[in-house]
């Protein structure tokens, strides 16, 4: 069976590997394809065109938008959207400006607790296109203010914690409509982490698929989401949400996948929903 990991981050956002290394690792792990889905950036996905990728390996260009709904953060995956569209480029430029301003605000808040970090330190040696809280978490760990990423979030960075700063306000429906408008399909990321109420609210906004297979989903959640997807005739996807090797064990690239035939890559462009399983 040909397997594809539909949720992979690169160092264009908060992943540690370059797009090239991500693809090499996916091949080594026996996959037939991956989707590059960085947070609020398509720079990693765009750079794939310059690589020499064997014909039998599929790279889907995607994105993972962070949106706000009822004051909660929702992640919307987009696949096959036109990532060269100027409208998208403009939106992402605004979001990235907001993201970098947000990091400065987080650093200001941390100063109140006598934690002085420089922006450059957070960025690291290879500045990401889309900077976020995980970059601050890594700097906090390096300086000994947290033992690991979860402690950094629990103490400082998660919503309601000491140095939390609000996200860019993109409505969930805006992200779903934009992905559709740009010829792609939208998928609700890791819905197993959301309440049923939030899931249904996203479904009402016209999302076309749900990520059934994800490392943070219990077996119970996976089964429930699978049944929901079948019942609502939604596209079923799955992926590792790979970022790095340290955070949570068991989500190396390929830990969670979907059969390529199942998402009907070739047919999708003609009629996405008719090939949803
Ligand atoms: P940001 O886009 O800056 O808001 O950061 C969100 C990202 O941080 C998520 O996509 C995850 O990769 C990571 N993240 C969020 N919450 C946690 C947590 N509690 N522990 C570890 N990583 C987290
Ligand atoms: Fe992330
Ligand atoms: Fe996510
Ligand atoms: Zn992700």
What's the topology here?
Elements: E1 3-8, H1 19-28, E2 33-36, H2 43-47, E3 58-69, E4 72-79, H3 86-111, H4 119-123, H5 133-142, H6 149-157, H7 172-181, E5 185-188, H8 196-204, E6 209-213, H9 219-232, E7 235-238, E8 258-259, H10 260-263, H11 265-268
Parallel strand pairs: 1-2, 2-3, 5-6, 6-7
Antiparallel strand pairs: 1-8, 3-4, 4-5
Helix pairs in contact: 5-6
Bound molecules: adenosine monophosphate, fe (iii) ion (2 copies) and zinc ion.
Feature tags:
277 residues, disordered C terminus, binds fe (iii) ion, 2 domains, binds adenosine monophosphate, binds zinc ion, DNA polymerase, domain 1, alpha/beta, eight-stranded mixed sheet
Strand order of the largest sheet: 7-6-5-4-3-2-1-8
Output mean pLDDT: 92
The gross shape turns out to be: globular
Q: pLDDT under 50 segments (min length 5)?
A: 265-277
Bound chemical compounds: adenosine monophosphate, fe (iii) ion, zinc ion
One letter per element, helices H and strands E, the order comes to EHEHEEHHHHHEHEHEEHH
By CATH, the architecture of the largest domain is named: Alpha-Beta Barrel
Radius of gyration: 18 Å
Distance between the termini: 15 Å
- Tell me the name of the CATH homologous superfamily of the largest domain: Metal-dependent hydrolases
Number of domains: 2
CATH class group of the largest domain? Alpha Beta
Kindly estimate the percentage of residues that lie in beta strands according to DSSP. 15-25%
Find the count of extended strands (DSSP E, 2+ residues).
8
Can you summarize the main beta sheet?
Answer: 8 strands, mixed
CATH topology category name of the largest domain: TIM Barrel
